[in-house]
Amino acid sequence: MNKVHIQSVASPYDDPRVAPLAASALSRAEAMGLCSSAVGRLDSGAMDALEARLAEAGIARLVQRPAGSDPAETAGWLRALHEALVGSPVPRTEWPALSRSLGLDLLSRLLGISLSSARRYLSGARKTPDVVAGRLHFLALVAGDLAGAYNEIGVRRWFDRRRSALGGKTPAEVLTGDWSAEDDGPERVRELAGALGFSPAT
Fold first, then answer.
1. What mean pLDDT comes out for the span 129-139?
2. DSSP character for 64?
3. Which of 62, 89, 104, 199 could bridge across to 137 with cysteines, CB 3.0–4.6 Å?
C-alpha cells in the first residue's frame, strides 16, 4: 500500500523547487522500506520522521538540514538526501518492501535469481550478496519513482510493457542476465521510470 499520498503542503515544501524533491525523497524511502507511517501532509513533521528513519538506517547522517526555511537551501538539502538514498542499499528493509509491492515472483525474476534464493534472502536465512543487493536497491529506486504515477498493480505491470524508449523491449527484458545498475540498459529503464513521476535527475 502506498503510504505517501500528499493531500496538503506547508512552507517551504510548497515551493516548486522543493515540492518535487521532497515528495520523491519520501516515495523512494517508502520503496526502500524506510517509511514507517502514512504521509498525507508535506511539512517539517514528515521530513523529521524521514530524517529519523534514515538515521536509523545509517543514511545521510552528515547531511545537514538548513535551520531556516529558505527554499533554495531546503532544495539543496533534499538533493543531498537523494544522493545519500541512491548510494545506500538497505537489503534488510528493501526485501520486505519490494516483496510486498512487486511480489516475490516478479522480484526474483528481475533480480535474476531463483525464487528459493529470494525467499532465503528475504527471511534472512542467507546474507544477500552485494551484486543482488545492488540490483535490489536499483529496483527500489525505480519503484519509488513509478509510485508517483502508478498504484502497486500499475507498477508491477509497467515492467512487462514494451517501451519504444527501450527499443521495443519491456523493462523486464532489459533487466535480464548479469546486469548492474550502471549498465546502459538499466540506466535507460531508470530514466524512463523517473520521467513518469517526480524524480529528480540523480
1. 98
2. P
3. 89
- Answer for the pair 85, 93: CB distance below 8 angstroms, yes or no: no
* Strand-pair category, 39-42 with 4-9: parallel
Is residue 146 within 8 A of residue 171, CB to CB? The reply is no
Phi, psi of 9 (to 5 degrees): -135, 140
Distance between alpha carbon 68 and the CA centroid of its chain, in Å? 27
Spacing of C-alpha 137 from chain mean position: 8
The answer to whether the CB of 41 falls within 8 A of the CB of 9 is yes
Measuring CA to CA, which residue among 154, 163, 174 is closest to residue 110?
Answer: 174
Summarised one tens digit per residue, pLDDT across range 51-72 is 999 999 999 988 999 998 999 9
Q: Whose grid coordinates read 523491449? A: 169
In the numeric block, the cell 499520498 is attached to 5
Q: Look at the chain and count its residues.
A: 202
pTM comes to 0.90
